[in-house]
From TrEMBL:
The Semialdehyde dehydrogenase NAD-binding domain, residue ranges: 5-138
Annotated NCBIfam families: asd_EA, PRK08664.1
UniProt protein name: Aspartate-semialdehyde dehydrogenase
Superkingdom of source: Bacteria
Organism, scientific name: Pusillibacter faecalis
């Protein structure tokens, strides 16, 4: 596999920092450039994040001395230095859409952690184990943009990773509807307890826009390609309630599911389907792919956020407490690491898929 030169746009924020750590010793990707807002431009990366480094591991040596570029003013320079960029910026949605499209038109593929382009109908929103085929829409997107190399691909919302992968292999039984309550860590808001002390010993029953994303984004992931667009699925119908809880990392979901009459699988069959589930990420042996995507715990008190969020380097999904329900057919608990599988790690896995499939080529 070729070595790819990688840029990170929004490299000073929490997800950007996670991208920086994931580039360290990556077998395919070489961190080449970091961009952020004008406030950080020109500073060595180490200085730009001084007092703001939120990761538990130190700043990688390869990043420390890189001079931070201005994501806006230095766009042409950055696009010329790299084979593709990850994007994790904190801006208004319309500004993000404009920025990402600008880089794409500069023939720089963008793998985005942002939500701004998730509902652009020719932008694939991909969980590599589930809907890898959606990357085929890139051909239509390139025609719209007038590009040869450039395009935008996005990863989904971090919270849906805790339940959509578990529901996916059960769709064949006629999954009709699901009720989901998510309990989401503070790093999902780009915070630490030092920066958000009011979250200590607290739970907030509202996260702006999160319930709509949790209900709608799975339907795009489960959608199909038609005439150069991704048409979202109509079912299963999902209703969601989302809470911010006092955990640093790890999004948990309590999930209730209802199947069409007469098609309900057994508990043993569900567990077997979860254990056997593999996708293109595993078949292609992508560097960041977990060997076992879905792990089921038989213990009544698992999965636990603190114990299980880092399973398979934070890229696996932990499941437990599958049992019958009095109103739905079954209920279970899911857990995913929100800044690894749910954010930067999921985007890195998507980039690996795009490289393996030839959509990103080394210059």
């Amino acid at each position: 596999m070729n070595q790819y030169k990688v840029g990170i746009i929004g490299g000073t924020g929490m997800v950007g920092q996670r991208f920086i750590t994931l580039m360290e010793n990556h077998p395919w990707f070489q961190l080449t450039a970091i961009a952020a807002s004008g406030r950080s431009a020109g500073k060595p990366y180490e200085e730009a994040v001084q007092g703001r480094w939120a990761m538990t591991t130190p700043i990688p040596e390869e990043a420390k001395k890189l001079a931070v570029l201005d994501a806006d003013a230095d766009a042409e320079k950055l696009a010329g230095m790299v084979d593709f960029c990850f994007c994790a910026v904190d801006m208004k949605k319309e500004e993000i859409r404009a920025l990402e499209e600008r880089y794409a038109k500069l023939e720089c593929p963008i793998i985005s952690n942002n939500s701004a382009n998730r509902w652009t109908d020719d932008v694939p929103m991909v969980i590599p184990e589930i809907n890898a085929d959606h990357i085929d829409v890139i051909e239509a997107q390139r025609k719209r943009l007038g590009t040869k190399r450039g395009f935008i691909a996005v990863k989904s919302n971090c919270s849906i990773q805790s339940y959509v992968p578990a529901l996916h292999p059960l769709m064949k039984y006629g999954l009709e509807r699901a009720l989901v309550c998510t309990y989401q860590a503070i790093s999902g808001a780009g915070k630490t307890f030092e920066r958000w002390p009011e979250m200590v010993d607290n739970c907030i029953p509202y996260i702006g826009g999160e319930e709509e994303k949790s209900e709608q984004e799975p339907l795009k992931v489960w959608g199909h390609l038609e005439n150069g667009k991704i048409i979202k699925a109509e079912s299963p119908v999902i209703t969601a309630q989302c809470f911010r809880v006092a955990c640093l990392d790890g999004h948990m979901a309590a999930v209730f599911m209802k199947f069409q009459d007469g098609s309900k699988p057994s508990i043993e069959q569900i567990k077997a389907d979860w254990a056997a589930f593999r996708g293109p990420a595993q078949e292609l042996e992508l560097p960041s792919a977990p060997k076992q995507f879905l792990h089921y715990f038989e213990e009544d008190n698992r999965p636990q956020t603190k114990l299980d969020r880092n399973l398979e380097h934070g890229m696996a999904i932990s499941l437990g407490r599958l049992r019958e329900d009095s109103q739905y057919d079954y209920k279970f608990v899911g857990l995913s690491h929100n800044t690894l599988r749910g954010a930067a790690g999921g985007a890195v896995l998507l980039a690996e898929l795009l490289c393996a499939k030839g959509y990103i080529e080394a210059k």
